[in-house]
Amino acid sequence: MADTQTLDTAAVAAYLSEHLPGFEGPIEAVKFDIGQSNPTFLLKTPGQNYVLRRKPPGVLLKSAHAVDREFRVQSALAGSKVPVAKMYLLCEDDAVIGSSFYVMEHVDGRNLRLPSLDELEKADRGKVIDEMNRVLAELHMVDIDAVGLSDYGPPGNYFERQVGRWSKQYRASETVTVEAMDRLMAELVERMPPDDGQRTLVHGDYRIDNMIFAKQGTNCLAVLDWELSTIGHPYADLASVIMQWQMPLGPEGRGLAGIDRVAQGLPSDEEFIAAYCARRGLAGIDNFGFYLAFCFFRMAGIIQGVLKRALDGNASNPERAMKVGAYVPIFAEHGLEALRR
Question: In this structure, are 100 and 135 located in the same domain?
Answer without folding.
Answer: no
